Prior knowledge:
Elements: H1 3-28, H2 30-41, H3 54-69, H4 76-97, H5 111-124
Helix pairs in contact: 1-2, 3-4, 4-5
Amino acid sequence: MTVLAVLGWIAIITALALLPRLLIDALVYPDRVAAWAGHHLHRPRRQQTSGPPVEKLAVELRRLAGVLLDPRPVSSVRRFGVERAYDETLGKACCALGIEHHLDEVRLTDREFERLRVEAALQEAGLVLRGPARGCTRPQNRRHPDGSF
């Protein structure tokens, strides 16, 4: 017999040995079994997308947010273009994480509210939208000539 055949038989014997225990648990603790089944069998699955990875989208969102939050004066055409790119990237991130959005459907006057709602949903899903665009760099401790920091 090969190793795979032996492992297959071990798996079958183990499953048969555990079957009575599983049946008793299902009869004695039906609420636990139902909760476990509901948690493991009915959780939503992430859709596989053909777009860029979520990590790249997060970096791009942080970069664009940095441009939007920059206090220096900028032309209205550039601002509109950056906002449009930010909204498109938010939409891609929503699609990657399975979050519903209406950024391309709402009027221009209501888009800021939808943008805030989408940002909150993405942050709740674990996406970091504010911060450095490329990793987290710590400032180096530099000593002054007198030895103080």
